[in-house]
Request: fold
Amino acid sequence: MTAETPDVLVVGLGPAGSRAAEIAARAGATVVALEKRAKAGSPVQCAEFVPSMIERDVPAVGEVTEQTIARMLTFVEDGERADETPEFRGRMLDRGKFDRMLAADAAKAGADCRYGVAVLSIDVAGTVHTAQGDFKPRVLIGADGPRSRVGAAIGQVNRELVETRQVTVPLVLPHDATDIFLSADYRGGYGWLFPKGAVANVGIGISVDGALADNKSTRRGLKEMLLALLQRLARERRIGTKTYALTGGAIPVGGRLQSIGKLGDTVVLLAGDAAGLTNPVTGAGISSAVQSGAMAGRAVADYLRRDAQALGSYEQELSDIFDAALDRARRRRREVLATYDHGGKPDARALADGWIGSPRYWRPEPQAKIKEGTP
Reply:
């Protein structure tokens, strides 16, 4: 069977892939976008919160917003009193509708969006193999999540992961804050309650080794921790006991990967979770996926117009925009994880200081000492 040869093949139609496909198609490139799920945005695998600044990149976000968020409350261990972070504004999305809206924009721009098509393998010449046929694009964009096949093909793998489990439950009273639960039991992660109108997403994430992220002990541990959190919130009469949905997934927490590669004469770009752009502390990644996807689409369009600097500019732009925040988060996360060495556990202060709601999270990094005699 002869391989299809589009200018651009996008793998994944989440926020990063849809934006990349839309921008490249609008610039006149022939774009095919593959999504392994039957439709974009289903099942939902995140808590569905985005900061208000996403309005700049997605002006129509209000159409898929379930409620707005005004503040953040942080609970440490079993403490009943929360630390409040005021003016922590954002939106709770209907993530399924959000993803489908972006995918529809890509299709309107001319991208050929195909669903139920999973990538089976990618060879060293840049040919992408699926059960429905092969593709040999000029440019391959990997927007296929934390365990990206495209990233693995160029040696870029997210090796630090947090595994999550989340349920949707009734919310007893209206709530305008994202609630964060920090505990030494949630190694490398945290628990959350994110209100979404009459319901709430309640979940927990914990750190796992990338090779072990799907093992039974991880799933069992998450299930037990989440059940305990749900029971606590039910006792406090904040949520009901009925569950409407169960989901989960992996979040990359190791920081940004190299986002440019090559397979034969096919150029490869990574965006979103595939590029490691998720915040290592909060797990937030929707906004960075939208932003990096648009950047990838522009870089590809410029490259296809024979701009020799376009790909290097993409890598540099990712660094300029994301590295400072990602590097800080990675350091704070590792400071907390270090307390587990030799059987230890972080105390309440260490947990709080490792979270973005703490002033100490934002403390300046110590400057390297200048050697004596250096001008």
